[in-house]
Structures are given as C-alpha cells and as structure tokens.
Write a structure and sequence with these properties.
- With 138 residues, this protein is mainly alpha-helical.
- Helices cover 74% and strands 0% of the residues.
- It contains six helices and no strands.
- Helix 3 packs parallel to helix 5 and helix 4 packs antiparallel against helix 5.
- The chain is globular and about 50 Å long.
- The protein starts with a helix and ends with a helix.
C-alpha cells in the first residue's frame, strides 16, 4: 500500500515528519535527500557534499533529458524539472548560508537544445575547416 499517494498534503507531511523522527528520510530527488539528510544530521552530509550532490544531479538531469528525451512524456519531464528545481533552490539557500557558490539551476529544455544545436554547428564548421585545411595542404 502506497500511503503517501493516498494521503492529502497535510497528512502526508505529518506522516513524513513522523518517519523522519524515526530516522527514515523521504525524498523525491537526490538533492532533496541530501538537503533532508543535512537538516537531520549535518555530520552525515557536509555542506560541501550537499553542493556536490546538487551539482552532479543537475548535470546528470540536463544530460539525461537530451539523451533520453523519448523515455518519458513531456509531463513527466516537466514534473521532474519542477521537483529538481525546487530542491536545488532549497540546497542553494543552505549553501549560501555557508558562503559557498550556488549550484546552477537545471536548464530549461529549450536552452539545452539551443546549446546542442550551437555545438553541432560549431563541430560542423570545425570539420569543414579541417577538411579544407587537408585539401589545401595536399
């Protein structure tokens, strides 16, 4: 039985808090897990480790969206983006208090596509230049 999907938000928060008091930390993203673990016991998740988890999660998410676009539907990617963005904001609030640089937010999908197109065009331009260079030197 999946209780958290059957409970309302208020009941779900009480349920999650009760489990957290028992040492079970619930989360929806790796960043959320790191934030919650740090809040539960900072000696288990240092601020530097929290920042690293957040950075790696964002990089992995951005790459996954580009490489696995057909794995999920648009709504699933949008929900994952919203959850990760929310948790990165929570992490950045803690990171800022520690005087560390903020973790970049996940990129919007349109930005990832634009960057990929720019890179592809640059690679094509570079290939053309290399080919021209070989022809000239032959």
């Amino acid at each position: 039985q999946v209780l958290d999907e059957e409970l309302g938000d208020e009941q779900n928060e009480e349920w999650a808090k009760r489990w957290q008091e028992e040492g079970l930390i619930l989360h929806k993203t790796y960043v959320g897990a790191a934030v919650n673990l740090h809040a539960y016991n900072p000696s288990l998740m240092s601020m530097e480790a929290l920042a690293e988890v957040a950075m790696q999660a964002v990089e992995s998410f951005d790459t996954s969206r580009l490489m696995n676009i057909d794995t999920w539907g648009e709504d699933q990617w949008a929900e994952a983006y919203t959850l990760l963005t929310s948790d990165v904001a929570r992490a950045n609030a803690l990171i800022a208090q520690a005087g560390l640089p903020p973790v970049p937010m996940p990129k919007r999908f349109e930005q990832i596509l634009q960057e990929e197109l720019s890179t592809s065009e640059s690679d094509t331009d570079l290939s053309s230049l290399e080919e021209e260079s070989r022809l000239v030197h032959c």
